[in-house]
Amino acid sequence: MTAVRGSLEKLGANLAPGIGGFRHWWSRALLSWLPAQWRVLLGCSDARLLLSPAPDAVQVSRCRAGRTVPLQRLVAPVTPAVLESALPAQERALPRVAVLPAAAVLRRRLQLPAAAETRLREVVRFEIDRQTPFSADQVFFDVRVVSRHGDGPLEVELVVVPRQQLETLMSPREAWAGQLDGVDVLDTDGEPLAVNLLPLAQRRQRQQPLRRFNRLLLLAALVMLVLAGWQLLDNRRQAAAALATQVDGLAARARAVSAQPQQLQDLLDGQAFFTQRGTQQVAMTGLLDELSLRLPEDTWVEKLDVENGRLQLIGFSGSASALVPLLEDSPHWKTPALTGVLQSTGGRDRFTLVAELQPPVMETADGAVPHTP
User: Fold this and answer.
1) Rounded Cα distance, 209 and 199, in Å
2) Which positions are tagged coiled coil (predicted)?
3) Bond before 35 cis per omega within 30 degrees
4) Dist CA 355 CA 139 (whole Å)
């Protein structure tokens, strides 16, 4: 477990410099697209004011992209208010950095492991006692990377200045307390080393423009996220409504299709009903015609009933007993028979005769009547 933890810590130490370098490069690449004045307002520009104090004056210069341009020479004593009144508006927002001559500091070159780059100040602090005649409590210091040799050691430079010399650099001392953004050192060519010897607690407390900018970006991102979610939800609702409409249309078509067989069945049933009624009508006509031919002149029918495949005749006849032979062998009925008792009334017999109806004979397409056994 200890070996795994050590491997993870080593991996994190190796990745941290690369990630930090990539983030720094990416930030610089994005900021390079902004105009110079915007970078100044956002606090992202490398431009700064260099204040070189002398016994009788203060030389004010502007340093940007490694180039130093003299601006003004102000006669001592110089206070922050005097400096602001003497500068143009676009220069007042720049960080103020006092500079020390090269002879006022002590510089030492060191070689450190690459893993120490993430904690350079903590590592170098333990080297002050060995590399300088001062202790860490007697000086202000900073460290800068001079060169990197791939995965090999780092070459760094330790810059040290005594505390008393830094505290009396700008006068009047009370006026400049907390009004400087840093203290740099000029090299032998008169160019700043890009270090900051001023402790963090003594630097000017400036409002971070990027903090407000980041908050606005965060708020805008949250608003855009809410709007995107709302748009996505609205799209889902519209898609659901369109799908519901489509489903309703398909359901209506399905109901119409499912109703067609029932309608067809109803049509077939109606056709069969009318066909049956027509057949029955034709059969009833033939039956009546057959009865009128077979019944004798002295016979008349009082009641004719056709129901459930049976024929029933009720009437009066002068020769009721002779009706059965007369009605046999008919194509419309069969097995005629008298039922009940014959009642004589006025020289005629009241009779009740029943017979079973024959199935109707359907004509073929050419009008011929098929043989019925």
Assistant:
1) 21
2) none
3) no
4) 142
H/E run at residue 224: helix 209-294
Q: Residue 91 burial by CB count (10 A; 0-12/13-18/19+): exposed, middle or buried?
A: middle
CA 175, CA 178: separation in Å to the nearest integer?
Answer: 8
Backbone angles phi, psi at 13, to 5 degrees: -65, -35
Residues paired with residue 350 on neighbouring β-strands, in sequence order:
316, 343
Which residues in the chain belong to E strands, given as ranges?
48-53, 57-64, 67-75, 96-100, 106-112, 139-148, 154-162, 182-185, 299-307, 310-317, 333-345, 348-357
Element (H, E) at 166: helix 163-167
* Cβ neighbours of residue 28 closer than 8 Å, sequence gap 6 or more: none
Residues 6+ apart with CB under 8 A from 352: 312, 313, 314, 338, 339, 340
CB atoms within 10 A of CB 169: 20
- 181 DSSP assignment: S
Domains of the chain by start residue, with CATH:
19-206 (3.30.420), 284-357 (3.30.1360)
- β-strand partners of 100: 185
Return averaged pLDDT per consecutive 10 residues of the chain, 373 residues in all: 45 50 62 61 70 87 83 86 84 86 89 86 88 89 86 87 85 82 86 88 72 80 91 91 90 84 81 66 74 85 85 86 84 86 81 84 48 44
Q: Is 64 helix (H, G, I), strand (E, B) or coil?
A: strand
Both tokens of residue 22? 């990539």
96-100/348-357 β-pairing: unpaired
Whole-angstrom CA distances from 329 to 239, 294, 308, 310, 355 are 79, 11, 21, 16, 11
How far apart are alpha carbons 139 and 60 in whole angstroms? 26
Residue of 331, 334, 329 whose CA lies nearest to 360: 331
